[in-house]
Amino acid sequence: QVQMVESGGGLVQAGGSVRLSCTVSRLAFGFATLGWFRQSPGKEREGVSCLYWRGGTSYADSVKGRFTASRDNAKKTLYLQMNNLKSEDTAIYYCAAVRYGACTWSSERFDIWGQGTQVTVSS
Predict the structure, then answer these.
(1) Are 50 and 33 spatial neighbours (Cβ–Cβ below 8 Å)?
(2) SS3 state of residue 88
(3) How many CB atoms lie under 10 A from the CB of residue 86?
(4) 44 contacts 26 by C-beta, under 8 angstroms
(5) What proportion of the chain, given as a percentage, has pLDDT over 90?
(6) Which of 27, 58, 80, 111 is the most exposed place for a label (fewest CB within 10 A)?
(7) Residues 60, 64, 68, 70, CA torsion sign
(8) Between 84 and 30, whose confidence is greater?
(9) What is the distance between the alpha carbons of residues 115 and 62, in angstroms, rounded to a whole number?
(10) Closest Cα partner for 98 from 60, 54, 55, 53?
(11) How far apart are CA 11 and CA 116, in angstroms?
């Protein structure tokens, strides 16, 4: 069974930085499109970043210039570096994967999910 395990969340002050990691097991990592999503209370899950398995990374407009997603295929790990954090970035952050999939902001297209990690930004 494929597993995705996030780490790195926590409490940070506005303007600060946090780095999330997501380690994947039992998946052909190099052939998986990977995504970062987040969900705030009362809101729908939204896409933050998508890393296409053939190359290329997309970002939501709300995080462009502040967040950087990357992947290490050898370590089977996905990262999200979040800088200049704002209170509106407070959410549970999830990593997700889909084999051979195209990048999309639709969470339904991803069939493998991590358990989520809380990021709270205090103002």
Answers:
(1) yes
(2) helix
(3) 14
(4) no
(5) 89
(6) 111
(7) positive
(8) 84
(9) 23
(10) 53
(11) 15
- Tell the residue number behind the tokens 């999330």, with chain if given: 20
Q: Angle 89-9-96 (CA atoms, 0-180°, nearest 5)?
A: 80
Beta bridge partners of 118: 92
DSSP result, 16-76: --EEEEEEEESS-GGGEEEEEEEE-TTS--EEEEEE-TTS-EEE-TTTTTTEEEEEETTTT
Beta-sheet pairing, 67-72 with 46-51: unpaired
Sheet hosting strand 67-72, strand order edge to edge = 3-7, 18-25, 77-82, 67-72
* Beta strands at 77-82 and 18-25: parallel, antiparallel or unpaired: antiparallel
- CA atoms of 73 and 32, how far apart (whole Å): 10
CB 25 within 8 A of CB 76: yes
